[in-house]
Design a protein that fits this description.
mainly alpha, 0% strand, transmembrane helix, membrane, DUF6747
């Protein structure tokens, strides 16, 4: 769990000195969007792997 805490600290520290708040909001939303897309890609790959890659 220490690694996740470290990543959380790095994530929060990255936005500390950003002055325009709309840029911070956009970057945070974009990072969440990318994480969701990555999760969907991994899920789709694992689903196809466990069902025999039937297309």
């Amino acid at each position: 769990m220490g690694t996740l805490e470290h990543f959380k600290d790095l994530y929060l520290e990255a936005f500390d000195d950003c002055k325009p708040s709309f840029v911070v909001f956009f970057l945070k939303a974009y990072s969440i969007f990318c994480a969701v897309l990555l999760f969907m890609a991994v899920y789709a790959f694992l689903y196809r792997a466990f069902t025999g890659f039937e297309f």
